[in-house]
Amino acid sequence: MEKMTSPYRWGMVVDLDRCTGCGACVVACQAENNVGICGKREIAEGRDMHWLRIERFWVGEYPNVRVRFLPVLCQHCHDAPCEPVCPVYASYHNPEGLNGQVYNRCVGTRYCGNNCPYAVRVFNFYSHEWPKPLDNQLSPDITVRPRGVMEKCTFCIQRIRRAREDAEGEGRKIRDGEVQPACAQTCPTEALVFGNLADPRSRAARLSRSPRGFRLLEHLGTHPSITYLKGGGREHV
Amino acid sequence: MKLSWLIGALAVVAVALFVVLAWMYILPMDLRDRSPVQPIAFSHKVHAGTNGIQCLFCHSSASKSPVASIPAVAECRACHLFIAPDAPEIKKLMGYWDRKEPIPWVRVYSLPDFVYFPHMMHVRAGLGCARCHGVVATMDRITRSVKLKMGWCLDCHRKHKASIDCWTCHI
Known about the structure:
The complex is a heterodimer. Chain A is α+β, with helices and mostly antiparallel strands. Helix content of chain A is 18%, strand content 18%. Chain A is globular, with a radius of gyration of 18 Å. Chain A starts with 9 loop residues before the first strand and ends in an 8-residue tail after the last strand. By secondary structure, chain B is mainly α. Chain B has 2 domains: 1-34; 39-70 and 105-169, no CATH class.
């Protein structure tokens, strides 16, 4: 079979010098992607559903304590540890550099979640329900995942799909900034920038070449699609 | 005697196992009614066949949206105020209009939640409606003419060099 290629390689830049830890991205992700609503019990069991979480770190000794925030979402690794362990190929790599999860293939072994060094995959331990008026906000474009299925950040694939459909209708490529996931769209400080890394002039690609850039757990060699920026401003932590 | 009983029982078990496995192999079975009774005896044969109305005239969203859309009662009424307003089925239609109710059409073609099917991409690619929906212009009541299985989709996608990436349809 011929190799599938694509003019797109989706990636993201997270500017930690801009992030205020407000959590708007977490809420936006939850609302956009039909992520299950979890109650007290599930959170106590550590089975809460988040495709995107904000890690919080305290830095320094008592009077001079500072807090650091780190938004962690699926890094869409190019050498993803979750992919080779799936026995049914539900976790796969797509030609656009996205790390895909095929819900109807998933049998729920949870190998992928256990092998993910970033712990961003979440498992539907329970069937989640949307109480009456809330079910109207479910997105019809994406699957409502049933119990026993692993799920994770998709870089809002439904938005990428829609942008590509529009672009193909007009016979052009997707423009820079035309598509952005819910987290990037909602970020009040524009700390999250999404774009096509295969286009060296896109905003995300330019930012990812910044000398402030680093990757999360870079030494593991997973080659993530997300670049974090840190080190500007007053101090270096 | 004993041995023949044993052989017979084994044969029965083997046949039962074969039948169960064969049944599982052809899953999922499409057990829904292929031609459900609709609330109004709407005839596609009369509209699309005899009168030659284009599919997109009524199902206008098919060329610009993922769903093909069913026309609103107002659209049916717009024509039928003047065309055969005294026919019993048209009276039924006007009843829905007067009660301000949508017509409870019964769905014939449906896909599971984990499949994303955009109509507009297929219309744009020049695929005729009849490729998937059968020759609707000859049907009085719509009958499902194909089994909407993934292999059937992929055959066509491969033939037309359309994307066969998993996330094209399963998002």
